[in-house]
Amino acid sequence: MTSLITPPADGPAAADPPAADHPGSVDPRLIDALRAQLPKSDDVHRAVAPFTGMPLPGVPQSDPAAVAATAAAARVAQEGWARTPVAARAAAVRRFARALVDNNDLLCDLMQWETGKARVHAAIEVQGVISVAVYYGRSGARHLRVRRATTALPGVVAARVGYRPKGLVGVIAPWNYPLFLAVGDVIPALVAGNAVLSKADSQAPWTLLLARKLAVDAGIPADVWQVVAGPGRLIGPAVIEAVDYLCFTGSTATGRDIARRCADRLIGASLELGGKNAMIVRADADIDAAATGAVQACFSNAGQMCIGIERIIVHDAVYPQFVAAFVERTRGMRLGSGYDYDVDMGSLTSPRQLEATVAHVEDAVAKGATVLTGGRRRPDLGRLFHEPTVLADVTPEMAVYADETFGPVVSVYRVSSDEESLTLANEGEYGLSASVWTRDLGRGSEIASRIVAGAVNVNDGYLSAIAALDAPMGGMRTSGVGRRHGRDGIVRYTEPQTVTTQRVPTGYPDRFRSLLLGAMNVSTRVRLALPHRS
User: Fold this and answer.
1) In which element (H, E) is residue 368 found?
2) Sheet with 245-249, edge to edge strand ranges
3) Contact assessment for residue 265 and residue 419, using Cβ atoms and an 8 Å cutoff
4) Active-site residue, 446 included
5) 3-state SS string over 234-291?
6) Has 355 been annotated as catalytic?
7) CA 9, 10, 16: angle at the middle one, nearest 5?
8) What's the maximum distance between 2 C-alpha atoms anywhere in the chain?
9) Residue 204 in contact with residue 229, Cβ under 8 Å?
10) Given this model, what pLDDT does residue 58 score?
């Protein structure tokens, strides 16, 4: 791949896209190679680069028939892949991790080009998916190992539990994290012996296609990981019809529809959906640390992050100090569209997200909210830029109070006790992520255990939980079902199978059957008499 990173000396191989909007490290010939991974089609979609408004390269659009044909090819390939020893599958994933490391800059270029995120956030995303590949490349075999299970008559009957791959796994991921979400969920499915059918997001397909090419070059069979592209409303249902399990990250509304479709087919699904995540700042919090952590948790990826913080709940005793420190740090953020590390926050990705952000701010202000900093579009920086915004005096009749913004907007609330903080944090329909800041780690952990959220970070905004790859990550309430990461993140792609063997064959006479029942009774009495060990 390295030969494709730098444009050839004799000029570009194609005029797609315009050179003025072309990151320097992306060779147009690479775009052609990535495009060739998709089913051929005369129907082509061009997304728009967030930084400049220039068209991105055309992407062939699949129709339901192409999805079905692609899925059929993946199913054939999966049979051989499942017979491949898990150690060999894991080794291929580790080679894939090395390829991601070697192509870090190119991956960052593509992500910035199609999403508008800051370089630092693109680099964190690359590191995140590398870590996922390393984790499952090293621990996948352990999670899938056949285990013994206790039976009713130990010594006579033995039981073991194995993990068979589901078969064909569908992965539908959003535009905001086109590597970590789109690829991070593919990796454990492959290690588990499945084939994968990925639906590329219409705004951000190129990062996924590059990752898939790197994986194939690392030894993942090409037909085992297939990619299709097209509008979700057209080919999303076709993907669901074709697969044995579906992994989806996106909005709660779409997640509900997907859940219904999966239920109709009686196939499993894991769904990570929306959130309105809260951060609690206790009276004993380290204010400087909390303010710095809040900036990272609220404005990473321009707030377009499902586990980002959109509500900050601050104790009266430290409210003025915290707000002053947080506002000062927010005002000091550097906004821009550069392909370097001199920018703290990039652009929003689409006009839809910009308009949603503006609508929440304008509605809140019209109904009495106070803008402590930000609150404006920044067309001087680019077509989709919006200032990081901090609101106070937000009340329940405002849309921003309970609805997910998915933009660089956060509201701060003043409370007088931990109990009031918990009540406010647990309001609403969501339960994805949360944060607690305190010098008392014991009390912080106790508060965390009472928050209705799939992950709670004490003295961190969001990163420590998502980076704890041996621990499950997912949502409660309408924030989703199922978990990624850890043992849960790979076993979800399998069917546990119990196999029992008994030393005495079936068909024995009734007299001996009575003896067995008696032995089982004795065995049960012995187990009940033994001291309990939790």
Assistant:
1) none
2) 225-229, 195-200, 168-172, 245-249, 268-272, 480-481
3) no
4) no
5) HHHHHHHHHCCEEEEECCHHHHHHHHHHHHHHCCEEEEECCCCEEEEECCCCCHHHHH
6) no
7) 100
8) 90
9) no
10) 96
Amino acid, single-letter form, for residue 195: A
Which residue in the list 108, 247, 306, 387 is annotated as catalytic?
A: 306
Nearest to 210 by CA among 2, 349, 20: 2
Contact 376, 391 (CB under 8 A): no
The encoded tokens of residue 395 equal 């009340």
- Give the Cα separation of 117 and 248 in Å (integer): 22
- Residues 435 and 447: their CA atoms lie apart, in Å, by 10
The DSSP call for residue 178 is T
Task: Name the catalytic one among 114, 125, 272, 310.
Answer: 272
Beta-bridged to residue 392, according to DSSP, are 370
Which regions of the chain are under pLDDT 50?
Answer: 1-20
Phi, psi (rounded to 5 degrees) for 255: -60, -40
Q: In Å, how far from its chain's centre is CA 390? A: 26
CA angle 112, 113, 119 (to 5 degrees): 20
CA dist 529 and 231 (Å) reads 62
Give the residue among 2, 28, 31 at the shortest CA–CA distance from 103.
2
Phi/psi of residue 257, nearest 5 degrees? -65, -45
What count of Cα atoms within 13 Å lies in the side-chain half-sphere of residue 456? Answer: 22
96/93 Cα distance (integer angstroms): 5
Q: Residues 54, 17: contact at Cβ < 8 Å?
A: yes
CB-neighbour burial class of residue 36 (10 A; exposed 0-12, middle 13-18, buried 19+)? exposed
d(C-alpha 113, C-alpha 18), whole Å: 12
* CA 312 to chain CA mean position, Å: 23
- The rounded distance, in Å, linking the Cα atoms of 273 and 478 is 7
* Amino acid code (one letter) for 48: V
Please state whether the peptide bond connecting residue 17 to the residue before it is cis, i.e. omega within 30 degrees of 0. yes
- pTM passes above 0.70: yes
Instruction: Say what angle helices 418-425 and 441-449 make with each other, to 10 degrees.
Output: 40
What span, in angstroms and rounded, lies between the C-alpha atoms of 94 and 181?
Answer: 18
pLDDT of res. 526: 78
Which residues are CB-neighbours of 231 under 8 A, at least 6 positions away?
Answer: 61, 202
- Tens of pLDDT, residues 319-338: 999 999 999 999 999 999 99
Are the C-beta atoms of 413 and 313 separated by less than 8 Å? Answer: yes
Instruction: Please work out, in degrees rounded to the nearest 5, the angle formed at the alpha carbon of residue 200 by the alpha carbons of 197 and 206.
Output: 125
| Calpha distance 345→355 (Å, rounded) | 18
